[in-house]
Amino acid sequence: MENISNIRYGALPSNSPYIKPFRMRYVQDGITKDADLLKVHDSVCIIIYNRTTKKLIFVRQFRPAVYYAAVSENGSETDDNVNSTKYPPKLAITLELCAGIVDKDLPLKEIAREEILEECGFNISSDRIEEVMTYRSGVDTTGATQTMFYCEVTDDDRVTAGGGIDDEIIEVIELPMDEVEHMVKTGANVVSPPSFLLGVLWFLSNKKPQQ
Amino acid sequence: MENISNIRYGALPSNSPYIKPFRMRYVQDGITKDADLLKVHDSVCIIIYNRTTKKLIFVRQFRPAVYYAAVSENGSETDDNVNSTKYPPKLAITLELCAGIVDKDLPLKEIAREEILEECGFNISSDRIEEVMTYRSGVDTTGATQTMFYCEVTDDDRVTAGGGIDDEIIEVIELPMDEVEHMVKTGANVVSPPSFLLGVLWFLSNKKPQQ
């Protein structure tokens, strides 16, 4: 996963399939304002607890956005052909909940079910998936909705090793309770989105099994 | 705050001061990949507990990104000059932690201190502000870091009504414990970013005062 090379930056092409920026102009209390926004897909994420191993299941992946930000923080934001020895790609290997975008006309639980299978390799029916909460994943530029789910699996539900589909490169990882508790208690320096910390804290507050 | 009119959409100007999109190309495990990203500022957010009123302090504001997304969900995404009677702006009034971007060369705690004053009207010294945790606010497109802080204030610390500076239109709101507990337990349909829910859950797990 960390074999990253030939990093280059360029202009956003006008036909980007990933992000569609635009400007919104409006008048609020008599003041004309502009906001520059992005159209993106809604998404789902899933807290997965493995009852067999008594561990939580997460995914790790290289995130280009995090890499760019991490390199910028070290002062080399304008470098083209970034030195990946000086800035090792592991700086941008994130720890996240299993997640995916809503790009099909299916119930959200069904999309969650597919992500659990594709990314993590567990094949479960959608009635084993519980909706936890819904929020706006970005309020500054996207406004997209993310719905968080929870499910429990066992080793018997595993049908593949997971890892994503097409050219996704995703590593599945199981972490024990004491390790995730340490992460949220100390604010350990995880490279994660807030949904990861929110999901872990929600699990520890509501679902943590008695020892 | 909800007096919003003359909503129009247009192309992103190339000199947008808000978002700077670009493409990153790289090779991972032999596969060439593109990622379209945004350069944005890092940010801080602050969980504020008022010891006098025994309430948590939040901010409410109209978020254009959420409005656009809410209208899109109702099927009118391509409308120019959106009908704000049919789509009331209150759809996009968010409930959030006090927060701000890191656009000055100051310690993060000092930036947090300024936001607590500007948005919420409490003037406290930065040694009363505790760092909680750090995460990547967006892993898909921005990778920016958000640092979460916690502080306690009393009514004696209040020096203004808050509300933001320049043309910001921000409402300060105090909510009692039972109300915020309900929000995170039921996943009540708050229009909020994950940092709000994370901050509330962290507070309830770590700082909630004994009744």
TrEMBL record, chains A, B:
InterPro entries: NDP_pyrophosphatase, NUDIX_hydrolase-like_dom_sf, NUDIX_hydrolase_dom. Residues 39-197 form the Nudix hydrolase domain. Its cofactor is Mg(2+). It is an enzyme of class 3 (hydrolase). It comes from the Eukaryota. It is found in: Cytoplasm. It catalyses: UDP-sugar + H2O = UMP + alpha-D-aldose 1-phosphate. One of its GO terms (cellular component) is cytoplasm. The keyword Cell wall biogenesis/degradation does not apply. Its EC number is 3.6.1.45. Keywords: Cytoplasm, Hydrolase, Magnesium. The keyword Coiled coil does not apply. GO terms for biological process: nucleoside phosphate metabolic process; ribose phosphate metabolic process. Its main location: cytoplasm. GO terms for molecular function: metal ion binding; UDP-sugar diphosphatase activity. Homodimer. Hydrolyzes UDP-glucose to glucose 1-phosphate and UMP and ADP-ribose to ribose 5-phosphate and AMP. The physiological substrate is probably UDP-glucose. Poor activity on other substrates such as ADP-glucose, CDP-glucose, GDP-glucose and GDP-mannose. This is Uridine diphosphate glucose pyrophosphatase NUDT14. The lineage of its organism: Eukaryota, Metazoa, Ecdysozoa, Arthropoda, Hexapoda.
